[in-house]
């Protein structure tokens, strides 16, 4: 599955400990879009502890690149319906790599 940025951010919150455990247990089944890496590590309220947690976690999963095909598909998706740039890129990445897009816990 490809993780939406929110899923990764939620996993650091104490109330989502089961989500964090699930993601740790299933690292081999998890992919992250390059845009999610930027969104997660660029989050304005990121604490030093969370930054270290996210950097460690992101180093353990495969980060999918942002290539020309992803960009073309993201443009097509944005033209179809209003969505954020990040969501369009993540959805395009999921479609091109044939991965489910996990958006919310």
From TrEMBL:
Highest taxon in the source lineage: Bacteria
InterPro entries: PIN-like_dom_sf (IPR029060), PIN_dom (IPR002716)
Record-given protein name: PIN domain-containing protein
Boundaries of every PIN domain copy: 1-99
Organism: Spirosoma endophyticum
